[in-house]
Amino acid sequence: MPYQHTLHNSQWAESLIHLMYHLGVRHFCVAPGSRNAAFSLALFRLSRELDGLNLHTHFDERGLGFLALGLARVQQQPVCIVTTSGTAVANLHPAVVEAFETLVPLFILSADRPDRLLECGANQAIRQKHMFGANARLSVNLSCPADSQALHQQISGFLQQYAQLSLPGPIQLNCQFDEPLYEQVPPLPLDWLRLNPVTCATPAQSIDETLLDIIRSSRSTLILLGQLTPLQHRQLLPWISRLRCPVIADIASQFRGCDEVHLLHYGDLLLAHPAFVAQLQPDLVIQFGGRIVSKRVGQFLEQYLRAPEAQYLLLSEYDQPLDPTRRARQQTISFERVAEWLPSPSVHPNLQLLIRQHQQLAEALPDLVDGSWHEAAVARLLMCHMPAGSAIMAGNSLSIRMLDSYGRFAERDIHVYSSRGASGIDGLVATAAALTSAYQHSYLLVGDTALLHDLNSLALLAKMPAAITIVVLNNNGGGIFDLLPASQQTAYEQMFLMPHGLAFQHAAAQFELDYELVADLPGLQKLLTVSGNPKRSRLIECRIHEGTTRLKGFIEQIRQLPAISACL
What we know:
Low-confidence stretches: 1-5
Largest sheet: 6 strands, parallel
Mean pLDDT: 91
Shape: globular
Number of helices: 22
Radius of gyration: 25 Å
Strand order of the largest sheet: 2-1-3-4-6-5
Structural class: alpha/beta
Helix content: 25-40%
């Protein structure tokens, strides 16, 4: 038991920061406020003392939460968010939901008022204990400790619960601070806490032998690749490369730059063609990861699983539900061991035919898609001009669907990030800003409504270590609804499309971004070919009128492409 020591706010806050550092946190995202002043002042001082401690600040807690989410993904380590009390904490909820769904480790140090100021009308005092409910892996309330022994007991209790977690995700530590909030006293001796190493959740280290028998006995396997991290891509690549069966890779799988011939980059479009579906005919589907963007892949799985003999294996690193069909045999497995543990399925009997059909579609797409100005052509052009070693944040709604359906990367080493846990348009700019912490060249493809939704986060870009290029698809509202049954409703424009008539030139100027407006493919190609100012982020606004009207006809044209049927 550590020695007895009367505790002050600054000492308590500094102890909790050391706790976060002990748990692997090197990036702290801080919003302004008085109730969290002890945290802010301690972090300001410790950023000069603790090796690798990085501070990020933002005036908007919602954007700050998504910046932390992006940093945790890019840096592949937990990130800590620090906020004041009240609705500042509530503004983190969208980012917490996304982190929970996608297993992103976030710590939230939410400053709170002491219990005596709650439920009495005191200013900025709300019910923020366990605020995130079922969307937090763990929520702990830390009351004002009278001395270091009381704090040690609270921290020890938290660490015991933390060690029992089986899945990573958001964790809230709600910390009560009483007045005086700005008092600073000498810190406690660093050896008083005496923390032991903590073992966090790790992927499963074994695989069911019956599943291996299923793989060995398959004669026509299909591989589906869902959302994967760059690390998981590197781990799976040796096994994927030696396969002789078709592989359909989601845009967020990190495999869209790979040149293995059995990787069918246009799987979403191919599944619209009856001749391709007729030749695919798997007797086993093996999926790695979840949250596949393509609805046609989902529809194909539903149709395939109607057969009583259908076999569907879903492999992931954590025991997390990822199967909307509820028909998969899900197995947790360390992706690092896949090449060692999994046998290669037999050669698919129609593999060469499927590859030729894919090649025919790839050859037809330029004439079909690239001749006019619309969202798909913008996505394809952007993918072709990203340099090796780049990263892109794929905005939700129409943006990620255009990337997924119509494009592949010209370079192998391109990393794709997305927010497909809740698939919201919240915080996409803030999440993309985090890419600059690890990549010299980074991009965001985003819709106009989503950009308006996160306009405050443009302020983050001036603070980041590198510039980012934002390409916004401005089709004057929710263009995605043009492709959905909503477009047939009498209330379509007012209640779904919601046209805004806004442009982004003045927003770019306000946040000191370079700005370009383009309305055709040659203009966009010129901008993407010429590098911008390496020290200033830029916003390229693609003004598109009736682009989705053209998109409607593409699928029907692909469905009737004679070249794909001619491969039979």
